[in-house]
From TrEMBL, chains A, B:
Key words, A-Z: Amino-acid biosynthesis, Aromatic amino acid biosynthesis, NAD, Oxidoreductase, Tyrosine biosynthesis
Example of a GO MF term: prephenate dehydrogenase (NADP+) activity
Species per Swiss-Prot/TrEMBL record: Hydrogenovibrio thermophilus
Protein name according to UniProt: prephenate dehydrogenase
Functional pathway: Amino-acid biosynthesis; L-tyrosine biosynthesis; (4-hydroxyphenyl)pyruvate from prephenate (NAD(+) route): step 1/1
Organism phylogeny: Bacteria, Pseudomonadati, Pseudomonadota, Gammaproteobacteria, Thiotrichales
Amino acid sequence: MKQWNNITIIGVGLIGGSLAKALKKAGLVKNVTGYGTREESLQKAQQLGVVDQYTLSLQEAVQGADVVVLAVPLGAMEAVLKEMQPFLSEETLLTDVGSAKTSVLNAVKAAFGRIPKRFVAGHPIAGKEKSGVEAACENLFVDHRVILTPTAETDKGALAELTELWQATGACVSEMTPAFHDEVFAATSHLPHLLAFGLVNLLNEHEELGNVFQYTAGGFRDFTRIASSDAVMWRDIALTNRDAIVKWLNHYQAEIQALTELVGSGDGQRLHDYFAQAKQARDEHIVKPNEIKDGSQTKP
Amino acid sequence: MKQWNNITIIGVGLIGGSLAKALKKAGLVKNVTGYGTREESLQKAQQLGVVDQYTLSLQEAVQGADVVVLAVPLGAMEAVLKEMQPFLSEETLLTDVGSAKTSVLNAVKAAFGRIPKRFVAGHPIAGKEKSGVEAACENLFVDHRVILTPTAETDKGALAELTELWQATGACVSEMTPAFHDEVFAATSHLPHLLAFGLVNLLNEHEELGNVFQYTAGGFRDFTRIASSDAVMWRDIALTNRDAIVKWLNHYQAEIQALTELVGSGDGQRLHDYFAQAKQARDEHIVKPNEIKDGSQTKP
């Protein structure tokens, strides 16, 4: 397996920090540099052993790096890419961890005027409702998917290197087109997050029932766990994957409108079938972490 | 604490079975009788030690019982109540564990022509996505709420006895009017369950993306856990608390319509504030199991 001398993490938060820790644990990298704009947070990352050193200079951060990982919020991608562009070597493997991919490719094009051969966009399907480097964890990606979205311009060698790098963290790597990625994750991730934010805001606003949260149980806690996610991250996802998200929110509204009419109809047989179908689909299809295997379908 | 000689559980599934086990563990009851319509399931309950004996005769089940607990699906309440009415002593403490309360009171009135003094409706806020007596667990109610919904007719002694009985299982007991109960749980429980069923059905139906469930992660699993709940139970809840559920589905649709427009607008500041408000509300208000205390607010 290829060893890397210098990896730079741009934005040492939960995902960037967890990647650094996982690669160190795997013995794949000698030296990790952290870049960010808040020195306090970078000092913390160094104290925690997540990075070997840090810098507030983007030029220093990317010059001499073998791999540069962009782990900043989606909304900061373009500005960071434009600032690093004059200093980044053509030989450096450049990747990102953003939750929407078309917008990242557009940001790369805007910064470089083209897609550099050794840029490969990526998205690890892992997270926590906690953010920040303190939450970083070397096992975050074990048995989780990482989606890479290469384009026609992507160098095959760079793609293979990045695949190997993510596999070293314990992740299962797949490939998709950027557009398919954005559609799939609008449906399976962005939509449920927005639905959970919406439910919490709805109940929080309805003052006439008092503090109804006190009557919620485990089901509600689980359902709304993702509503404790970082607001900046979700603002940027909503902004950068807007069209696909609006499309799936509209699909969902139509589904709920039909369900509302079904409840209103009082048709017991159809209600039973509706719930039984969902239960069956979930019990059959939902991936359990230990069922994810490279290259295999995850349907049990 | 009052000891009971004979408790009868009508419907020995997850909730009825867990209550029997919890009361035995607490030493509150000498003898538990199970009643049901499927002998195989009752044999299983006896083998597991959940009930001391069982009967397929409702007359046998309720004659001589000190406490009768109705733990059948909401849709079966009225028929069971009508069948037991000729045999039930005025001295027997009668209760239920249904998730909607107005409909249970209507079923009791239909069966008895009035609300018997020693009937007290109840709702333990506990569950699992698994059902059946095999899933029954003596700790299911520990640090969970149980809502009792007494009416003007309810005997104070019966209410006090039932409160003590539930407290012996480790639960925190509160009181509400039936109508307020149904409104609160339409919002905090029935609504999220239906939203989760709806999301799974939506994604299951959209064949053009393939099996998208394979790309889901922990957030989706948690969000949809409640969509693995029992279809008969949820059919009956949808039928018996229909008006409150339709009202909250409509509230939610309006919320999601507004959120869809907000995403479409691309207004980053307002999107950020929307997500931050939900995150703050959830982080502040969501009850953690160990924070539920009798008589105290659960807001941390």
